[in-house]
Design goal:
about 475 residues; alpha+beta; Beta Polymerase, domain 2; Hydrophobic Seed Protein; cca-adding enzyme, domain 2; 3 domains; 8-stranded mixed sheet; 20 helices; 12 strands; about 10% strand; globular
Length: about 475
């Protein structure tokens, strides 16, 4: 097991240097080839092997590429197996009756084996500079076919640009990714400032890979992340939201958000949260407490993910804004019993503009708000007006209960209450239709009686 250096530890003299980008029209780069006998065939996806084998038999180049190769070399189990090939989309489609061309800006082929889909993309190359704005490096059109070398060079990080030929059992490396994996270093391909400016979302991807895989970010790459963090505001909002949610579900959200804050990405993407955390050197103990409470919620979220839970989008958003909303409403984070209409008002005022800005769906926004507002239900005393059976069968109950579990983990209290509600939830799911209907009728009858008493009450005397 190799020793990993910590973030920003000085590199040794024998650390591999960043690969140079080949100028357009220069000599082709011969890939470094490493045998892949250490990767057992049993660890490879059989459907992906079928796709590669057929394309190679028809004379095309075809390899496993990207994250699956990286994960296999690190001894991890890949989530997906993607294929890159020299065949154009229509050629791939003609080769597979079970293939379907997708995409508008850049077409690729989904080859389906039942419910399992193998994404098969044609080699691409970096697009030429735009004539109208040659100094603007942001990539807006990435629809140029290329060869294997060009496909590797246009990718983001060296560790994500490796090809695996399962037929020859070989790894092809055009960019120095094998050396970086061995050294535990995350590095961009070529000039890091250019690569980050081309696609600022790479800042979030760098944070994801560094925290999830335990890699040290190369010093030049880290400096470029800081220098280009402001450019994240130009990135497509749905992509940014997707990467933030991935970080929250990664099991390393605490480290990822600390790194986002350190490089300036949090200030750009979630300015209210960054301001809530305050300055690092703020002498006010209250500022330290605010930050500590936020980090403890993320730590609880990580523990929940490691326990096998996958937080819903509404829960992730609620965790992000919970402390801001509680503070704005003057609610004790450990006790929602006295929460009033101020909490609902604060939740709407903070979450609705955020949702609009990042294109979060109205459904997920509503679930996040309701999860926060329903926290008081878990600890309020039972009464004739509150029916636990109906609450536990409500549409948003699971998100609300998940948030209560995270709060209990963060504050170290209320776990027995959480477990009692888990039992109630299980009982509610097993309740008969008659039981549920009886509870609803009782609730309606009480509502009618209250309305009748109000109608027959004597009117107040006139002044």
């Amino acid at each position: 097991m190799r020793k990993r250096r910590t973030q920003h530890e000085a590199p040794s003299n024998d650390e591999p240097q960043a690969p140079a980008e080949r100028p357009t029209g220069g000599q082709p780069i011969e890939p470094r080839v490493r045998p892949a006998e250490d990767i057992p065939l049993s660890s490879l996806d059989q459907d992906a092997l079928r796709v590669i084998s057929r394309l190679q038999r028809q004379g095309f180049q075809a390899y496993l590429v990207g994250g699956c190769v990286r994960d296999l070399l690190l001894g991890r189990r890949p989530k997906d197996f993607d294929v890159a090939t020299s065949a154009h989309p229509r050629q791939v489609k003609r080769s597979f009756a079970n293939g379907r061309i997708i995409g508008k800006r850049f077409k690729l082929v989904h080859v389906a084996y039942g419910d399992h889909v193998i994404e098969t993309a044609t080699f691409r190359r970096a697009p030429p500079p735009r004539e109208e704005e040659p100094d603007d490096l942001l990539i807006t059109d990435d629809n140029e076919f290329g060869n294997a070398e060009e496909d590797a060079l246009r990718r983001d990080f060296t560790i994500n640009a490796l090809f695996l030929d399962p037929t020859r059992r070989e790894i092809l490396d055009y960019v120095g990714g094998l050396d970086d994996l061995d050294a535990g270093v995350l590095r961009t391909i070529g000039d890091p400032r250019v690569r980050m400016a081309e696609d600022p979302v790479r800042i979030l991807r760098a944070i994801k890979f560094a925290t999830r895989l335990g890699l040290r970010i190369d010093d030049d790459t880290w400096a470029a992340m800081i220098d280009t963090a402001d450019e994240l505001g130009r990135s497509a909002k749905p992509r940014v939201l997707e990467e933030i949610l991935r970080l929250m579900r990664s099991g390393v959200a605490l480290g990822a958000f600390r790194m986002m804050r350190a490089c300036g990405a949090l200030r750009v993407l979630l300015p209210q949260i960054d301001a809530h955390l305050g300055q690092r050197d703020d002498p006010d103990p209250a500022a330290h407490d605010r930050a500590d409470e936020f980090w403890r919620l993320l730590e609880a979220l990580d523990g929940d993910v490691h326990a096998g839970n996958n937080p819903a989008t509404g829960v992730c958003v609620a965790v992000l804004f919970l402390r801001l909303i509680e503070r704005a409403a003057g609610v004790d984070p450990r006790n929602h019993d006295q929460a009033g209409p101020e909490l609902a008002r604060a939740a709407s005022e903070l979450l609705e503009p955020f949702a609009l800005g990042v294109r979060l769906s109205r459904r997920d926004t509503g679930k996040a708000i309701r999860a926060i507002l329903q926290q008081r239900r878990f600890t309020q005393p039972l009464s004739k007006r509150f029916r636990p059976l109906l609450f536990a069968r409500g549409e948003d109950f699971r998100e609300s209960l998940d948030l209560f579990r995270l709060r209990s983990m963060a504050w170290g209290q209320g776990w027995d209450v959480y477990e009692s509600w888990v039992q109630r939830y299980q009982e509610a799911q097993g309740a008969s239709t008659d039981d549920v209907e009886r509870e609803r009728k009782r609730k309606r009858r009480r509502g009618r009686r209250r309305g009748k008493r109000a109608e027959t009450a004597e009117p107040p005397a006139e002044a």
